[in-house]
Amino acid sequence: MAPRRLLSVVIPAYNEQENIRRVYDRLTLALGELDLEWELIFSVDPCTDRTEELILTLCEEDPRVKMLRFSRRFGQPMATIAGLEAAAGDAVVVVDCDLQDPPELIPELVARWREGYDVVYAQRRTRAGETIPKRVVSAVGYRVIRHIADVEIPPNTGDFRLMSRRVVDNVVSLKEGHGFLRGLVGLVGFRQTSVLYDRDPRAGGNSKYNRFLGSLVIGLNGIVGFSRYPLQLISLLGMVLSGLAFTLAIVYGALKLGGVPFPVGDATIVIAMSFFSGIQLLSLGVIGEYVGRIYDESRNRPKYIIESRHGWDKRG
Predict the structure, then answer these.
(1) Of 91, 140, 153, 311, which one has the greatest count of Cβ atoms within 10 A?
(2) What pTM was computed for the model?
(3) Segment 174-193 mean pLDDT
């Protein structure tokens, strides 16, 4: 008989001691329903609580559990990419450690993969447990990205998704250093579909990643990394403002030659200068984001550094 196919589950984690055993228990129950071999890869930023200790205990109890530990904090996006590179599965699922994304949905993701889809992303129908600012940022961000991105990034999705082996291989082969998985998967392409679900509140503890600021950074990565629209908008705004200034200059010259006084006060000058200065600073900021991205990519620094690997010396 041919060996059963392998499913890898990548779990980024940072200071999640309250949820390690919970996520393991729920994953093992969900994955036990599948006619698949499986492995769990915890991709861990250096923690200040017992997260690493608990994962190492799981590694001793279950040879299918593995852990990557980084030399310093590289953040959730890079932890996810590292887990993808380490995964050996015929398909790979990415799921958060906080259990807001239910492991019980994985069998449905696998079923759609078996139908021939290369990417099955979980699409949020409701978002329980999220703050109003986080929801507002997410809603606005998805709308902006949907209209200006060069690739299709489905709304109300996170990193919770299943990817086939060829999608994972192509994603990790990309040299971009921002780790915006949703955009990278959209860039790679292949046949994709969605599964709707209701997002739960955190199972325990508080998020150690800055969710609000993190959402802003992720949204900025999605815009700068996958669209030149802001640069085009600056060019268009520059042409409009230049045309407006030129028109005002002609009107001013005509009125001056005709002897008609042109009403210009100190307040008007201050307002006009403030407006144009603000436009200039905003434009420089947008250009700086793109130049900074070019600078980061040109240095070609490693996206992450692994301090230790646990569990790969065993056979599940």
Answers:
(1) 91
(2) 0.72
(3) 80
